[in-house]
Amino acid sequence: MESKTLIIIAHYGIDKKITREQCEKALIDKEYSTIEFIDFETGYAKLSELYDLPFDNIALAQQRKFTETVKPVLDKYPDAHIAYFGLTPIPVAFHFGYLVGNTHSYTIYQWHHQQQKWFAEIDPPAAGYEFELRPLSLPQEVQKGKGDVTIRISTSFRIDPPSSYEVVENPSNEFDIELTNPHPDSLHNQTNIITVVNAFQDVLGAYANKLSDREQIHLFMAVSAGLPFVLGTRINPTIYPFVQTYQFSKDQSPKYKEAILISKEVSDRVPLTDEDKKVADMIRGDWEKQLQDKIKPFIITITGKKSANWIETICESDEEYKKVRQHLKTPWSEVTDISGTSLADDKINMEEKNVEDGFEYIEKTNTWALDDGFLTGLKKRLDKNQNTDVSQAGRLFFFHEALHYSKNGHSLTKEIADGIGQFPKVIEEADYQADVWALLSEYKYCKVHESEKLREGLKNFFCNAIETAVETMWSFMDTGMELSSIQIRAMNRFLNWYWQWIRIEDLDGQGKLEDIICILFDKPTIEFAGPPITLRAHRTYYKLNVRQQGILQVAAFVRNKVYRFAPNHIQDIIDGFRQMSGEKIKTGLKSFQATIR
Questions:
Q1: What 3-state class would DSSP assign to 206?
Q2: pLDDT in tens, 380-391
């Protein structure tokens, strides 16, 4: 008898646990020599809560859990058949199917809400019910030009096109895969499921062959739980690099809300090994010890006496303060000192290890949650640069973010921060101020606790501290592969700091605090132009991997004059961003600064 392996995947997260007993009882084919059962819970949510779920966090946790629990089984049994039992939000099921891929055969089992049982094949929802797709109109000729594509899939209920226009106003192309008679139980057998999947594949084929210039697919689904999983298996990130899924609520406005973005960048996230997790735990522990044992006493030390402003708390003496206060003008003079932040009450959550965007601050408990991937990625980048260290990176991180979150600082609470990337000029100003504040706070900290970092002079100290801060920024993007694109506001932040690094390096001698503060308080006005621009989720990006770039130029406003041209090493700037190499970016900027000096 031929050996047969079945992989049962119980994928749940909506108000109901799926047990092995339920799954095995529902199997239509029980003749398997080996059965592997994977209990894959994605969280717990009621149907009324789906619209507001933190889908980015769920996707990150799901991807990590998939790498740890599902992928090894799929790799071990490449010829196994999958029995999928799904009861999760539609975007989560689609994302999971994308992770699984199209390498195994499968049977989809669905929950029949009226009969309260799992099924693969069941009677039609009503006597005489006919399953029929409406005719699908596909492009016959190649269509050039940028734009987005909307796909609406309606098997349970019809999606009203105006509801999708609320979030995607003017798609270049629209496709409707819909039944003439939508019904929650319309997909009552495997043939019906495959019919819809094949129609979806036809649309994807048209996108790849006729609409290759289009940049993003917006996918709206009103379907039963098993179908999104299968649809997700058909997404190849090389061909369909950006697929935006949506969550629906009839009681909300707009009715559809962006959920999980399926993208090549997400796919390329580096999976974490056991050793990576140990490293993350070690850094998390070290940062917590540093926060409690050094940073908090430091705050008490420098704010123990009355000061006119935050800069006075940074200065070593009254004489030093007199020299630098002449540069202290609005808005710098209005910034709070470190006692006005929450750091004196903060702690790190040692248990939370999967955090979208790398970290989260919970104001209610004054607690920081730090992602394993952020910490291990940071360590790997810093290990490559002898002028940086992970403890300093932790201090700069806490100082920077504390000013953001402080009610006496930027008051960048979670409610305000959500979607703040849509306001790049505003966040660029806030980020730069927080960076400067953190660098000067770090300078004072080292005067108190780590004076050896200052032995080679202020110029060397601030260049190394900037290097550490910038490498921390890169760690959020570094997946071990070159960047194909970068958000424009992120590029501007890097340009600002490499520009300042060069200015500080160019100071005479070992540098004086007055000269360095003069540079830091003079925020650069510098922009890059030439690479093609794309829009994703209301944020603008430069494409970095396009063969034919436009005319690459740098412009800067320096000493009340506008400078604009292409420096000799401008290609190094593009290559530097693509390769996340600060040295290459510096080379390009140095050639620019040398020209205008």
A1: helix
A2: 999 998 899 999
SS3 469: helix
b/e for 517-554, b at 16 or more Cβ within 10 A?
Answer: bebbbebbebebebbeeeebeeeebbebeeeebeebeb
Q: Determine the pLDDT at residue 536.
A: 60
Q: Which of these, 582, 550, 554, lies nearest to 568 by C-alpha position? A: 554
Q: Within this chain, do residues 383 and 443 fall inside the same structural domain, yes or no? A: yes
For 120, list phi and psi in degrees, rounded to 5: -110, -35
Residue 217 bridge partners (DSSP): 149, 243
- Read off the tokens for 518: 């003069």
* Complete edge-to-edge strand list for the sheet that includes strand 485-487: 485-487, 539-543, 533-536
Residues 365 and 464 occupy one common structural domain: yes
Q: At 521, list the tokens.
A: 């308080």
Residue with the bigger pLDDT between 101 and 354: it is: 101
Tell me, what's the pLDDT at 267? 45
The number of C-alpha atoms within 13 Å of 306 and in the hemisphere containing its C-beta is 0
- Looking at the chain, the whole-number percentage of residues with pLDDT higher than 70 is 94
Partnered with residue 246 across adjacent β-strands are: 258
Asked whether residue 365 falls in the same domain as residue 447, the answer is yes
Domain residues for the domain of 561 are 503-512+519-597
| 104 Rama sector, left if φ>0, alpha if ψ -120 to 50, beta otherwise | beta
Is residue 571 left, alpha or beta, with left meaning phi > 0 and alpha meaning psi from -120 to 50? alpha
Q: Are residues 256 and 133 in the same domain?
A: yes
SS3 content of the chain, % helix, strand, coil (to 5): 45, 20, 35
The confidence score (pLDDT) of residue 538 equals 59
Q: Which residue has the tokens 């292409």?
A: 566
- The SS3 of residue 148 is strand
Q: What's the confidence (pLDDT) of residue 29?
A: 86
Task: Name the strand (E) or helix (H) holding 318.
Answer: helix 318-324
